[in-house]
């Protein structure tokens, strides 16, 4: 009896080891002399671009194979994999709170001594450095592509309505009124997806509450109630210029609607442009930074690190992974990436020349740029759903207090 | 006898081991981590019951409890009414009975996520179009974008999908009732209502119990439908507890805190299921 039990347990254990063996090989297997690397990307928009770049790389390096993995809810997937100690070899992720956590967890390669770092604009290296904080020394990612939080506008409609790109908040409101009076939808909102509300929120927050809000808030020097009052008011003002189902349209549907000529302006990042153009190839678009205050010199463009490249400290194939990152960072590939993705490059002397970005070009040239405030909020507070709720209920005071209490609550855990 | 025993053991032990490895062990791990400040990775230390105390002070968790219970109770009632009706219809002497049974079972085979995405499309594109052309104000907007109505959309999808499974259980119960009893009742002059309340309903009581418990438990853990339809929005109006635990635990780096939340929720579900069983079984015995 006992023997039988032992035998069955043994056979089961054997079975599991065999299974485990299979799983292990999949990750960084070296079948037929080829090294397979996993490239993890958090952007569904860039899948085709990456496929093209990978094909070119594999042609030049026949002994390296790159497997692209760009799952939905990528950041959650990445964190889950971190829990399992199973990080992908190469990661192409956003410069946000998740990167900060990974950096602090000490699982990413430190690029401090890398030659590649010298070719990157230092302001972006600083930006991601602040995400990691001071507890951990080092540069754990290479900023690659950057983005811009813009107001996208339909050029044809601007001409028809006789509108000019606004320089101040009052001018901005004036053109919104004019568009509304003409029976157009001034701003096409897609607030069913909570994160799309953060585009306006970030432009307003960065310019009104200041770049160092998160640091001050953590130190106890300021609160949302004190610094975000005007932000909340202006958020509500903007939603008055939406369409009748602001809360019912999601991002994907919004891109199609805007492409088909609904709405004069669309508050979105540069990443939405390829999607809009895909839906309507003939559309003529322009962009400008939302003028948040009435002093044009104060109005900065919110830009962040959209993609940074990094690799796992634990990977068995550091050399090969480095080779791919070097290939990505060379000027030709970076140019190709930003052209296809309508993004901006973090690499020196690689410029985005698409006429769509005429309106924000000067911001990049003069450095009138500030970072995304919400990237520095504690991740657990779920700010986007709170903002979405506020836009529905429109109760400013309780909302700002709630932001403060959620922030503190998450920090105390 | 001894030989028979060892056969049972051979069947039971592998199942037990698998269940333990993939179910019991992670549960114990979760309970363990709920007493720490683990973020899901890296270093951690014990913090005692701090996480538990914080859950009780967490308004967001309380809101999620409110929504989940409202959703689960209403959906459970609706599912049981509809599936009992459908089951009685399918049990009657109708044409294409087998084909119809198969068709009514289809929604259960489909993945909840896919059903959710399809309904999402219907709510966003079809219904507002119909509402607009008929001039019905509340239909002309996407109901998923309205915090007061979004939960109804989720109830609709959840009920539509789970009626299939409960119907099968009720059908299984209905076929156990002998035709003779109905014939006897007819001779005594019982109408349709009397037959239902005095014969059908009491005789399928055990199936009613299991359906209530299973449906309630399933709806309390609602997750997929919400991910596919609203993502917890608008605002936090459709944030269920499972979604909150998942979001906070994996996206927000609050693994330990949400583990505590999960442990509490586990206890709540167990208690509710036991109360339901006790209460409904008592009813079975009385009949």
UniProtKB/TrEMBL annotation, chain A:
Pfam family, any one: SBP_bac_1
Protein name: ABC transporter substrate-binding protein
Top-level division of the source organism's lineage: Bacteria
PANTHER family: ARABINOSE-BINDING PROTEIN-RELATED, POLYGALACTURONAN_RHAMNOGALACTURONAN-BINDING PROTEIN YTCQ
Matches recorded under InterPro entries: Bact_solute-bd_prot1, SBP
First and last residue of the signal peptide: 1-20
Keyword terms of this UniProt record: Cell membrane, Lipoprotein, Membrane, Palmitate, Signal
PROSITE patterns membership: PROKAR_LIPOPROTEIN (PS51257)
Keyword Cytoplasm belongs to the record: no
Gene3D superfamilies, sorted: Periplasmic binding protein-like II
Signal keyword on record: yes
TrEMBL record, chain B:
Entry GO CC: plasma membrane
Main location: membrane
KW Cell membrane (keyword) present: yes
Protein name: Sugar ABC transporter permease
Keyword Transferase tagged: no
Membrane-spanning segments: 7-25, 67-90, 102-123, 149-175, 196-216, 262-280
Topology in the lipid bilayer: Multi-pass membrane protein
Subcellular localization: Cell membrane
One GO BP annotation of this record: transmembrane transport
Family affiliation: Belongs to the binding-protein-dependent transport system permease family.
Annotated organism of origin: Metabacillus litoralis
């Amino acid at each position: 009896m006992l023997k039988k039990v032992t035998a069955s347990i043994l056979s089961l254990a054997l079975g599991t080891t065999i299974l485990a063996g299979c799983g292990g090989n999949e990750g960084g297997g070296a079948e037929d002399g080829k090294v397979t690397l996993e490239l993890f990307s958090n952007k569904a928009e860039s899948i085709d671009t990456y496929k093209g770049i990978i094909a070119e790389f594999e042609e030049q390096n026949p002994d390296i194979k790159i497997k692209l993995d760009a799952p939905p809810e990528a950041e959650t997937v990445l964190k889950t994999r971190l829990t399992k100690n199973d990080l992908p070899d190469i990661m192409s992720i956003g410069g946000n709170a998740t990167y900060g956590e990974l950096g602090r967890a000490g699982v990413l390669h430190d690029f401090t001594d890398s030659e590649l770092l010298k070719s990157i604009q230092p302001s972006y290296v600083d930006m991601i450095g602040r995400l990691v904080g001071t507890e951990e020394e080092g540069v754990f990612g290479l900023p690659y592509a950057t983005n811009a939080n813009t107001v996208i506008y339909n050029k044809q409609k601007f001409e028809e309505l006789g509108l000019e790109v606004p320089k101040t908040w009052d001018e901005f409101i004036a053109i919104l009124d004019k568009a509304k009076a003409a029976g157009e939808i001034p701003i096409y909102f897609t607030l069913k997806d909570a994160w799309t509300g953060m585009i306006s929120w970030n432009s307003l927050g960065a310019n009104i509450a200041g770049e160092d809000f998160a640091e001050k808030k953590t130190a106890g020097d300021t609160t949302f109630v004190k610094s975000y009052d005007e932000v909340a008011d202006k958020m509500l003002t903007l939603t008055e210029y939406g369409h009748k189902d602001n809360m019912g349209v999601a991002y994907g549907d919004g891109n199609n609607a805007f492409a088909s000529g609904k709405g004069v302006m669309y508050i979105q990042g540069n990443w939405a442009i390829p999607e809009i153009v895909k839906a309507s190839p003939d559309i003529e678009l322009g962009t400008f930074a939302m003028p948040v205050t009435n002093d044009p010199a104060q109005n900065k463009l919110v830009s962040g690190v959209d993609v940074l490249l990094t690799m796992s400290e634990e990977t068995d194939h550091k050399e090969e992974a480095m080779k791919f990152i070097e290939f990505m960072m060379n000027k030709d590939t970076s140019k190709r990436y930003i052209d296809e993705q309508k993004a901006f490059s973090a690499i020196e002397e690689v410029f985005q020349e698409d006429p769509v970005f005429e309106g924000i070009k000067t911001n990049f040239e003069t450095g009138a740029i500030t970072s995304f405030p919400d990237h520095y909020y504690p991740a657990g507070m779920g700010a986007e759903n709170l903002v979405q709720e506020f836009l529905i209920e429109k109760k400013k005071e309780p909302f700002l207090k709630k932001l403060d209490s959620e922030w503190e609550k998450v920090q105390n855990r | 006898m001894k030989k028979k025993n060892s056969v049972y053991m051979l069947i039971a032990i592998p199942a037990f081991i698998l269940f333990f490895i993939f179910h019991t062990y992670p549960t114990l791990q979760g309970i363990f981590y709920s007493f720490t400040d683990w973020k899901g990775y890296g270093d951690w230390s014990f913090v005692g019951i701090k996480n538990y105390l914080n859950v009780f002070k967490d308004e967001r968790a309380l809101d999620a409890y409110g929504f989940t219970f409202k959703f689960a109770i209403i959906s459970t009632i609706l599912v049981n009414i509809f599936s009992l009706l459908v089951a009685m219809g399918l049990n009657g002497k109708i044409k294409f009975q087998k084909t119809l049974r198969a068709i009514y079972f289809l929604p259960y085979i489909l993945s909840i996520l896919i059903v959710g995405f399809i309904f999402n499309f219907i709510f966003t594109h079809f219904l507002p179009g119909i509402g607009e052309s008929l001039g019905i104000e509340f239909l002309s907007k996407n109901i998923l974008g309205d915090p007061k109505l979004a939960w109804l959309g989720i109830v609709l999808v959840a009920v539509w999908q789970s009626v299939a499974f409960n119907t099968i259980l009720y059908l299984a119960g209905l076929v156990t009732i002998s035709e003779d009893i109905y014939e006897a009742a007819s001779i005594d002059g019982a109408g349709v209502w009397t037959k239902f309340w005095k014969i059908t309903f009491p005789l399928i009581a055990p199936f009613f119990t299991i359906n209530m418990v299973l449906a309630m438990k399933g709806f309390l853990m609602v997750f997929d439908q919400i991910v596919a339809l609203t993502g917890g929005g608008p605002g936090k109006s459709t944030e269920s507890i499972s979604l909150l635990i998942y979001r906070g635990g994996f996206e927000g780096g609050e693994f330990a805190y949400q583990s505590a939340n999960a442990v509490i929720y586990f206890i709540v579900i167990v208690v509710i299921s036991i109360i339901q069983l006790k209460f409904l079984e008592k009813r079975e015995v009385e009949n």
